[in-house]
Amino acid sequence: MEISNKSEYALLALLELATRYSSGESLQIRQMAELQDIPNRYLEQLLATLRRRGLIKSIRGAKGGYVLARDPGKITLLEAWICIEGVETVISPTEKSSGTLENQIIQEIWQEARQAANAVLEKYTLQDLCERRGKKQQKQLMYYI
Question: Which domains does the chain have, with CATH numbers?
């Protein structure tokens, strides 16, 4: 399973916003783009989607920018991924697979794989990303001392 550039860039932007959540500091598009090396125009589109879906809020004015709409510990990676990719993850159990027996078996296994991936993404939040980043940064600092 590979992550799309779109989802990766969105998660990087959300990570930057999550890092600043407790201080209430907002970030402008150009700051996020520079910090994570994301093209400005592309980031604008992603942030507009995240804002429409309620994951972030925009703040107007000279000190304006973007902030998370909720605590980073309450936003799962699955929620962010669905928001960006527009993928519906729940498939009705009454939905019947058409085709041969072999097609049905393949679809069942694919559904199981999707559910496993969703379970992992549901388990982690933006806060978890922040904590992992902090731990890895600490290890890198300790290595150079």
Answer: 5-144 (1.10.10.10)
